[in-house]
């Protein structure tokens, strides 16, 4: 069997392209596995009121989270041993909101998150639920 230069070139090219494709697929798997991680958490709710946060509205710390930001819709209290402050979250039932872990709480331990609501009534109506929480990481 005669080996021509063009046959060798075609086989080498095919092998290199296959190798590159395997590398790209492997990198994409790692990237997506690190970007999105979902687990079931117990979700409760709070607001900035004295009952929920034990802070008086006249206090300079009223409505301020552990990260130093003002609590707004999308603020979540987390156990910082599991979720770092500043982490972005997607929470089942709220498809249009990307939440941010900006607060902590004495009762927030383990797989428990506390969503901030603008009123005490809304926080009470939310109650206690089991929800899928996706930790979204923007960088590797």
Structure write-up:
This protein is an alpha/beta fold and 140 residues long. The protein has a single domain, classed as RlpA-like domain (Barwin-like endoglucanases, Beta Barrel), CATH 2.40.40. Helices cover 30% and strands 26% of the residues. The protein contains 3 helices and 6 strands; from the N terminus they run αβαββββαβ. It has helices spanning 5-35, 50-53, 120-126; strands at 36-46, 75-77, 88-91, 98-103, 112-116, 129-136. Strands 1-5-2-4-3-6 form a 6-stranded mixed β-barrel. The termini are far apart. The model has no long low-confidence stretch (mean pLDDT 85).
Summary of the model, kept short:
The protein has 140 residues and is of the alpha/beta class. It is 30% helix and 26% strand.
Shape: rod-shaped
Kindly identify the CATH topology. Answer: Barwin-like endoglucanases
Using the 3D structure, state the CATH architecture.
Answer: Beta Barrel
Encode the helix/strand succession as letters.
Answer: HEHEEEEHE
> Sheet bearing the most strands, described?
6 strands, mixed, barrel
First-residue to last-residue Cα separation: 50 Å
DSSP strand count: 6
- CA radius of gyration is 24 Å
Number of domains: 1
Beta-strand content estimate: 25-35%
> Uncertain spans, ≥5 residues at pLDDT below 50?
none
CATH superfamily: RlpA-like domain
Strand order of the largest sheet: 1-5-2-4-3-6
CATH class: Mainly Beta
**What structural class do helix, strand and pairing data support?**
alpha/beta
Helical fraction equals 25-40%
